[in-house]
Amino acid sequence: MTDPLNNSYYAVTAHIWRPRAFEGDLECDVAVIGGGFTGLSAALACAENGFSVILIEAEHIGFGASGRNGGQLIPGLRWTASELEAEFGRERADALFDLCWRDNRVQARIAKHRIDCDLKSGHLEAAWTPKDFDTMKREADYLAARFGYTSDVVAKADMADHIASPLYHGGIHDPQGGHFHPLNYAIGLAQAAVAAGVRFVEGERVHRIAEFSDGSNELFTTRTIVGARYVIDATDSWIGDVEPDLGRYTVPIMNYNIATAPLANASELLPTDAAVADSRFVLNYFRLSADKRLIFGGGERYSQTPPRDISAFVRPFMAEVFPQIADAPIDYGWGGAVAVTMNRLPHIGRRGNVFYAHGFSGHGALVTTTAGELVAEALAGTAERFDVLASLPSQPFPGGKWLRRPLATLGLLYYAMKDRLG
Ligand SMILES: Cc1cc2nc3c(=O)[nH]c(=O)nc-3n(C[C@H](O)[C@H](O)[C@H](O)COP(=O)(O)OP(=O)(O)OC[C@H]3O[C@@H](n4cnc5c(N)ncnc54)[C@H](O)[C@@H]3O)c2cc1C
Questions:
Q1: 238 C-beta closer than 6 A to ligand 1
Q2: Residues 124 and 163: beta-carbon distance below 8 Å
Q3: Residue 102 gets which letter from DSSP?
Q4: Helix, strand, or coil here: 338?
Q5: Is 381 left (phi over 0), alpha (psi -120 to 50) or beta?
Q6: How many independent structural domains does the chain possess?
Q7: 367: which of 34, 64, 79, 195 lies 20 to 30 Å off by Cα?
Q8: Closest protein CA for atom 37 of ligand 1
């Protein structure tokens, strides 16, 4: 299927991956649905643990958010570590910190499989207001004192060392964060998975899972039936299509990115080559590509219909941050769905022999690899670390199938408006 939303810089600079398909009915220990970071990491780790694995992807590897995101590797979750400790107590905060901040499994996979995906270190959180900067400084102090996790507090006067924009009131530069080419990371994981014995069925959508009383499962696509002891549902924004009950826990919010033409003054815009995300509710996030384009994300849309001209939609956000390139040529514009949960924490768990991990709420580039690997770990019999993530609270959105999205949209519009009013 050609995807009008995928006129992306990533698609045209992707490494070669030949889509794979199998004919006839298939059997395996573990069937993974979805070829994004979560599904690929889970499939790879399951194969490494000795299971026979089939990964079924409706379109192609990286078709979903994993192949279209801003490429920002931001340690942690959407909640700060101090918020997690206040809510869940010291012991759970320790466990969450170890998994979501300290344990950088993306870096480990890139190193292990020598994945060529333009990995760069450094992430800057830029304060939209002085109040945001105060909050950031308090959190940086807390992280340093409590966990020995250090980052650099950048005063407003020193922001020019990192970013040529007058807008920001300071920031936190985290050398443990970074950025990468997300689609090439996904393809690298897929290649490692093939080498580990994972079989891929691409271009086939799972329509239904039948669970039998002995715990086994059958997955039905249009052309194939896959029999599996275990299922890992890693379909994120689409999870409700196969598992309607799980679909109640997320709503998809459309988010758009552009890539300028290569810029002669790229290194002046972002001198330390860090990825940047600002503290607005509907945030701006941006970074340089390996060939010195500015990749800029900004402006959510609560309608599922994309803007007619994505570049024109995102350009004003870029021009506000960087007026000096307001008229720069834009070569690519694309978008994708961010699966958002009610409380912005991922929804991870298990029902019988069906495992799921979704709803990373725009903060999934790093933690999806961890989540996928922890599902594999649980499936191999050690659920302790999986349970740390699976025990995060989650609530379905109110409103049933038809009202869920409009109600969630109203809530998000309220916060976006508050943000605009300051
Ligand atoms: C525009 C955008 C920008 C973002 N920027 C960032 C960022 O900079 N940093 C960050 O941390 N996070 C970011 N995110 C979020 C991050 O990309 C996601 O959290 C993460 O990629 C989710 O990965 P996943 O594997 O769970 O899901 P996905 O990558 O969405 O993969 C799900 C896959 O399942 C397949 N599928 C769906 N239904 C079926 C079915 N029935 N049968 C078979 N296959 C099926 C889909 O085709 C898809 O390939 C962004 C997201 C978007 C959309």
A1: yes
A2: yes
A3: I
A4: strand
A5: left
A6: 1
A7: 195
A8: 235
Rounded to the nearest angstrom, the distance between the alpha carbon of 65 and the centre of ligand 1 is 3
CA of 62, closest atom in ligand 1: 49
In this structure, the number of other CB atoms found within 10 A of the CB of residue 383 comes to: 15
Is ligand 1 within 6 A of the CB of residue 6? Answer: no
- Tokens in use for 88? 């869940």
Domain that holds residue 22: 6-68+184-249+343-400
- Ligand 1 contacts CB of residue 368 (under 6 A): yes
pTM, two decimal places:
0.95
For ligand 1, is residue 177 a contact (CB within 6 Å)? no
257 C-beta closer than 6 A to ligand 1: yes
Q: Enter the tokens of residue 343.
A: 């409380």
Report yes or no: 286 and 276 within 8 Å, Cβ to Cβ.
yes
Assess if residue 121 is contained within a domain: no
41 found inside a domain: yes
Question: From the CB of 232, is ligand 1 less than 6 Å away?
Answer: no
131: left (phi over 0), alpha (psi -120 to 50) or beta: alpha
Per-residue pLDDT of the chain (422 residues; tens, 9 = 90+): 456 567 899 999 999 998 777 777 899 999 999 999 999 999 999 999 999 999 999 999 999 999 999 999 999 999 999 999 999 999 999 999 999 999 999 999 999 999 999 999 999 999 999 999 999 999 999 999 999 999 999 999 999 999 999 999 999 999 999 999 999 999 999 999 999 999 999 999 999 999 999 999 999 998 889 999 999 999 999 999 999 999 999 999 999 999 999 999 999 999 999 999 999 988 999 999 999 999 999 976 767 788 999 999 999 999 999 999 999 999 999 999 999 999 999 999 999 999 999 999 999 999 999 999 999 999 999 999 999 999 999 999 987 666 666 666 666 665 555 555 55
Q: Which helix (H) or strand (E) holds 45?
A: helix 37-48
CATH number reported for the structural domain that contains residue 354 in this entry: 3.50.50.60
Task: Give the three-class secondary structure for 66.
Answer: helix
Separation of CA 377 and ligand 1 centre (Å):
21
Q: Which residues share a beta bridge with 210?
A: 218
Q: How far apart are CA 288 and CA 267, in angstroms?
A: 8
